[in-house]
Amino acid sequence: MIQGGFLNVLMAIESNESRKMNQLAEIDNQDMKVDYLLDFAVIGAGIAGLTAANRFNQQGGKVAVFEKARGTGGRMSSKRVVSPSRDEHDHFMAFDLGSISITAKSEGFAAELDELHQLGIIAPWFKDTNNSIHYVGMPRNSGLTRYLSKDLECHFSTRVTAIENLEGVWHLFTLENNTKKLLAKAKHVILATPPAQAYDLLPYETPLKAKLDTVEVDPQWVMGLEVENLLSDLESIHYPQSDIIHSISQESFKPGRDRHNQVLGNEILTIDASTHSRADVQGSIVLQVQATASWTNNHLELSGDEVSVLLIKELECILKQILTVKNSYSHRWLYSRISQGILTQEGYLWDDKGLALIGDYLSSEFIGIESAWFSGKQLADWLTLSLSTPHA
Ligand SMILES: Cc1cc2nc3c(=O)[nH]c(=O)nc-3n(C[C@H](O)[C@H](O)[C@H](O)COP(=O)(O)OP(=O)(O)OC[C@H]3O[C@@H](n4cnc5c(N)ncnc54)[C@H](O)[C@@H]3O)c2cc1C
């Protein structure tokens, strides 16, 4: 009985080994994006992933970043939309599609922002009533993540569709024409995606999956709007009393943008100012308008154009004027703000097979961009320390 049990175990191990060998033999190694063994493969080029990747890189680690979009930024990205008017085909509306501004609660992040400001990567926009400085990326918010990626090996337009640990080495795959293609092999994989996308990528057996089950993220419609005749004086970021519109941000008045939202250079237009007088304004103005989470949830399946019509109507009620619209564009963020995160002091999650989760949903102390930055920094600092300490 005991012997039979032992043999069964041996046979199971053998068949497991041959399954692994078969798996390895089946993998298409052709056209790998990275043909050497990485120390760290980072999935996601948002602020969390790029912060971690930069620190690994500075410590001499072999690191590559894989990003499904065409560029950096994730929820800090910016958008340019060409004018619909035939006479103005060279005119575009540009605005920050995700985060409006960057603020710091901790001294560490405040020092980091100050340094980025000295380098001209970000600029102060205004101080709020809590005396908190709101910074923006130059010439748009995506400028910050572009700067963070400059020394990194980044593979854009590359969606990671599976990760597998085969014989102790992490394998990253993508799907190309319905064929599973090997992208890279790595000792450690850092999932720096929103939690739902991390959940889909996690191999079945890891306990991290159960933790991700508890996370809730709101969707959000966001509209860029160019208008010719805005009359009201609004704060830089205005939060109206509305069930439909959460916030209105004055994109044209951010530093480095002019009223048509073309770049003026590193000039700071406003600081310590929270309103802008319409008397100063000639020409059109670009706004970023965010819908509330509950309204978004009830209008998830509408088209972008349908959403623009409804948001403009609500905006006209709030502003008490009929708007002359030059351009509008609405985008649906399926994963926008974290309503229920995993509250850790460390800011990251780790399993002992070399897999980590980072992002804005993992800190008990911070929210938004600061939370994502903290998460990436904390993991990189801890991991580089533990890898350089024997038996850690
Ligand atoms: C409309 C809006 C307004 C906001 N306003 C503010 C604000 O004013 N201030 C503030 O502090 N925060 C704000 N936030 C929140 C802030 O933008 C986020 O907290 C922060 O940017 C999250 O960074 P991250 O790196 O954790 O994730 P993300 O920025 O989401 O980055 C994750 C990246 O992973 C990529 N990815 C996902 N799956 C895969 C895959 N399978 N393969 C490859 N790549 C993949 C994505 O394309 C993305 O680029 C706002 C967010 C939104 C949406």
Write the topology of this structure:
Elements: H1 2-26, E1 37-43, H2 47-58, E2 63-66, E3 78-82, E4 92-96, H3 107-118, E5 122-127, E6 133-137, H4 142-148, E7 153-155, E8 162-166, E9 169-176, E10 179-191, H5 195-201, H6 208-212, E11 216-227, E12 237-238, E13 245-250, E14 285-291, H7 293-298, H8 304-319, E15 325-340, E16 349-351, E17 355-357, H9 368-388
Parallel strand pairs: 1-2, 1-10, 2-7, 10-17
Antiparallel strand pairs: 3-4, 5-6, 8-9, 9-10, 11-14, 11-15, 12-13, 13-14, 16-17
Helix pairs in contact: 2-9
The chain binds flavin-adenine dinucleotide.
Flavin-adenine dinucleotide binds at residues 43-49, 66-69, 74-76, 98-101, 159-160, 192-194, 197, 201, 220, 222, 290, 333, 336-337, 359-360, 368-369, 372.
Word description of this protein:
By secondary structure, this protein is an alpha+beta fold. Helix content is 28%, strand content 28%. The chain is built from nine helices and 17 strands. It has helices at residues 2-26, 47-58, 107-118, 142-148, 195-201, 208-212, 293-298, 304-319, 368-388; strands spanning 37-43, 63-66, 78-82, 92-96, 122-127, 133-137, 153-155, 162-166, 169-176, 179-191, 216-227, 237-238, 245-250, 285-291, 325-340, 349-351, 355-357. The strands form four sheets. Strands 1, 2, 7, 8, 9, 10, 16 and 17 form an eight-stranded mixed beta sheet that branches. A hairpin with a 2-residue loop joins strand 9 (169-176) and strand 10 (179-191). The longest helix is centred in the N-terminal third of the chain and has 25 residues, at 2-26. It starts with a helix and ends with a helix. The model is unreliable at 1-15 and 260-274 (pLDDT under 50). It binds flavin-adenine dinucleotide. Flavin-adenine dinucleotide binds next to helix 2, helix 5, strand 11, strand 15 and helix 9.
